[in-house]
Amino acid sequence: MLVHVAAVTILVNIAVIELDSFYSHSSRKVLDVNSVAESPLHRVFVYGTLKRGEPNHGLIKDAANGYAKFLGLGRTTVPYPLVIATKYNIPFLLKKPNVGNYVLGEIYDMDSNMLARLDELEEHPKFYERTEEKVLLAPESALKPEKTFEEVSESTRAWIYFLPKYRSSLLDGPMYESYNNNGSHGLKYCEKYVRDPSYDHRKDVQ
C-alpha cells in the first residue's frame, strides 16, 4: 500500500512539473508574439546589394538582426541616377530627382531592429541619408509581359537610402534602371570585410 501511494505521489509531482513547464513555455510564446506585434514596422525600398541574390541580402535574411518580410517588387515614381562608383563598385542612388531612370528594387516591411542594422550598413545619416518617398509596389506574381508596372502596382511610401552629397562627375557615367552585381557592367561589388581599412572610399564620391 505504501509503495502504491509513493508511486502515485511521484506521478502527480511529474504531472505538476510538466504542466508548469508547459504554461511557462506558452507564456514565453505569448510574450514573443506580443513583442513582435508591438514593434512598429517600417517599409523600406532597397535597390542595390540588399536585394535577393545580391551580396548583402544575408543581412535581411538573418532573423538575429530582426524581422523583415518581402512584400514585392518596387519602382520609384521619380527618375533618379543609380550609379556604381569607387574602387569597391558600390551602387549609389544619388539624390538628384528627374535625372536618370525610374529605379527598380524590392520592398520590405521590417521592425526597428532590422532597420537599425540597415542604417548601420548604409552609415545613415553620416554618409547615406534615409528619406521616405512615394514608390510603386507590385506583387511579383502580378508582373506579366503584357502588363506595365503601373497597371499591376499600387502607391505606397517607403524609406530609401540616398547619397545626398556627391561629386558632379558621378552624373557623367552610366546610370542603371536596376542593379545586378553580376550584370554586364562587370563591376563586382567588394564586400566590407575584405576592404582596405586605410582607404576611405567616401572621398571618391563626395
UniProtKB/TrEMBL annotation:
SUPFAM superfamilies: Gamma-glutamyl cyclotransferase-like (SSF110857)
Alphabetical list of InterPro entries matching this protein: AIG2-like_dom (IPR009288), GGACT (IPR039126), GGCT-like (IPR013024), GGCT-like_sf (IPR036568)
Occurrences of domain Gamma-glutamylcyclotransferase AIG2-like (ranges): 44-174
Active site: 122 (proton acceptor)
A Pfam family it matches: GGACT
Signal peptide (residue range): 1-19
GO molecular function, one term: gamma-glutamylaminecyclotransferase activity
Alphabetical UniProt keywords: Signal
CDD domains given in the database record: GGCT_like
One Gene Ontology term, aspect cellular component: cytosol
Highest taxon of the lineage: Eukaryota
PANTHER family linked: GAMMA-GLUTAMYLAMINECYCLOTRANSFERASE, TROPONIN C-AKIN-1 PROTEIN
Family: Belongs to the gamma-glutamylcyclotransferase family.
UniProt protein name: Gamma-glutamylcyclotransferase family protein
Organism: Pogonomyrmex barbatus (red harvester ant)
Gene name of this polypeptide: LOC105430166
